[in-house]
Amino acid sequence: xxxxxxxxxxxxxxxxxxxxxxxxxxxxxxxxxxxxxxxxxxxxxxxxxxxxxxxxxxxxxxxxxxxxxxxxxxxxxxxxxxxxxxxxxxxxxxxxxxxxxxxxxxxxxxxxxxxxxxxxxxxxxxxxxxxxxxxxxxxxxxxxxxxxxxxxxxxxxxxxxxxxxxxxxxxxxxxxxxxxxxxxxxxxxxxxxxxxxxxxxxxxxxxxxxxxxxxxxxxxxxxxxxxxxxxxxxxxxxxxxxxxxxxxxxxxxxxxxxxxxxxxxxxxxxxxxxxxxxxxxxxxxxxxxxxxxxxxxxxxxxxxxxxxxxxxxxxxxxxxxxxxxxxxxxxxxxxxxxxxxxxxxxxxxxxxxxxxxxxxxxxxxxxxxxxxxxxxxxxxxxxxxxxxxxxxxxxxxxxxxxxxxxxxxxxxxxxxxxxxxxxxxxxxxxxxxxxxxxxxxxxxxxxxxxxxxxxxxxxxxxxxxxxxxxxxxxxxxxxxxxxxxxxxxxxxxxxxxxxxxxxxxxxxxxxxxxxxxxxxxxxxxxxxxxxxxxxxxxxxxxxxxxxxxxxxxxxxxxxxxxxxxxxxxxxxxxxxxxxxxxxxxxxxxxxxxxxxxxxxxxxxxxxxxxxxxxxxxxxxxxxxxxxxxxxxxxxxxxxxxxxxxxxxxxxxxxxxxxxxxxxxxxxxxxxxxxxxxxxxxxxxxxxxxxxxxxxxxxxxxxxxxxxxxxxxxxxxxxxxxxxxxxxxxxxxxxxxxxxxxxxxxxxxxxxxxxxxxxxxxxxxxxxxxxxxxxxxxxxxxxxxxxxxxxxxxxxxxxxxxxxxxxxxxxxxxxxxxxxxxxxxxxxxxxxxxxxxxxxxxxxxx
Length: 845
Prior knowledge:
By secondary structure, the chain is α+β, with helices and mostly antiparallel strands. The protein folds into 4 domains: 1-53 and 254-425, no CATH class; 61-219, no CATH class; 427-519 and 704-845, no CATH class; 548-678, no CATH class. Helix content is 54%, strand content 16%. It is elongated, with a radius of gyration of 34 Å.
């Protein structure tokens, strides 16, 4: 290999311009820009969360307690170690306006704050006023309260009107337009209501066993280590069940969501880059075909295969760097240019700037993709003899590249997959995506070959006699020089992603809006005190419209240890470890319980604590019979041995507990009951009115409303994925245009021959259009089949829900494929139609 010679020759050939490489440049630029753009937005949000972590959290540190407030020694300990301390309480409750039959009720996430709130940042109200004015005593003598504007509109309120939380009346003073620490809150089922914590003392909402979280925010003295404060607390109060958070991760739930959705969109962007790789490979092949004579001369003059490989590798490498650079500029520049719009639309803080790490990741993906998709056609230049090149046989070679180059190609693919797994932070998703892309490539290549074979067979069939346009179209598709492979590959991947997203989205929408409400209860009722339960149940038993009522005692606890080891070490990423979990007790298996392993304890069991655990959770964590789980409930640790595993089905939105203990294990622990009520829509309002009037402390969660909120969140994720898939499809359309442009010369010759044989321009144009439509339909059908299979796997394997094929989504995918190929094909049909047969045929001599 003579590298200096290859470098000189490469520079000379590049002086001829970028002709033939525009598709390569556009494909690389679009793919890299998509990944760089997503990475830049994700980095901007992460930087914003880091900078605003103190304001989002509401202090330097926060300690959270479930079901209880800090005991006096705990409160005193916190006050001693903080420059300023603020305590809040957060819970769900019903806001009631009016009395009797005309009373209006709505679910709200209530926050009770103290006089020190907010420690960081400022709350904003409409009309403007201070926190003390908004929440303090009003001229009427009632405590003040503010609400989210959405809740005010829903209840038809105005400043000066009164509302109730439990048994306590409040006067609305303003609308809450900015809550400085809103980002630190967990997912809530209702809009915010803000009041003073001391005003809730007579509300009956914070009694023993009721569901609430107390949170204490600390401003630390200068030089105090947050980590040391946390360790000192754990040493002083080892059984408190407290959860700590500091300002370095003010909103871990949001950060995790941003990280995961960003990683997912980057992986979707990689799919687009893979589609662009098809265009890169096609552009390289077309360029090398035009260089057939040059390669033949160089080989005749003694140039080695390695020198020729280096010559064109240098050229294409330099052009690839140009395309990647353009993509990086685009991917970094668009978020910067749209920063004002993005900052206004994002519900999270973001700092838009140039983030080298995001750009470096995108550049690495671009370099690897360009290398992989150019190496194969370049490597084949070494396997062709000069005599074959002089005879114009370059494009007909089917020889594989030499073994060392094949090894480099496989290694490059492995490095690309490894980089995606490393940078995404979700290696399972990255590897799964890579397998899906490779599988899709394999399926699409096989489909393209099958389409060509079927087209060739049908073109020769006697059934097409008298249909010359269709026969011409099928003959062209089945011919060796037709663009069936690049068309189906470029369109197929983008349409596959869209098909999968469309099928999953329609199935989820059907499950949420149609199937789930039919199986789900009308209401969840929370915080039912034990002495209220008999009257509560009697009201529902007397209602002929109520079809079923299920109740269960409920406590909430935090899993702190598994088999004597910290739970965070045993299962650090499992959802059951994060936050608190619902716990119940039962002397006998609840109706419908299916044990998969072990046995339920006897009804009169009074020994050491036993627990029945969800079999799915046990399998995921690796637990079995005899293992132990330590749960902290109200500051006290309970260590229970796993006595049985059972099925827990959350898909019906009914009562389901991951953990159920024997009754004696929780004897004396303050708790409340929950209930699910099954009734038709016409019975919901009377039930809520009667029970809300009798038991103001009880919280009712309308299941349909909760389902709607979940549907909105899923719709947002589906929309983001669809936009990313659309970017992949745009890259595929560019590849289509490249394939159509590359085949233009062959179509000119074909049109000239057909005109000589008497074909009209209309018939030739119809044949071209029919050819494009058939290829588009084939690409759409293959993508639909593969996408539907992927959607079925997601619904059954991930969502554990039934799958129903959505015909409307399917038709849109196929029609989209037809439209895309028609546009690309017809854009390059006019020159062949305008060509004069005599000139074209003489040029072939």
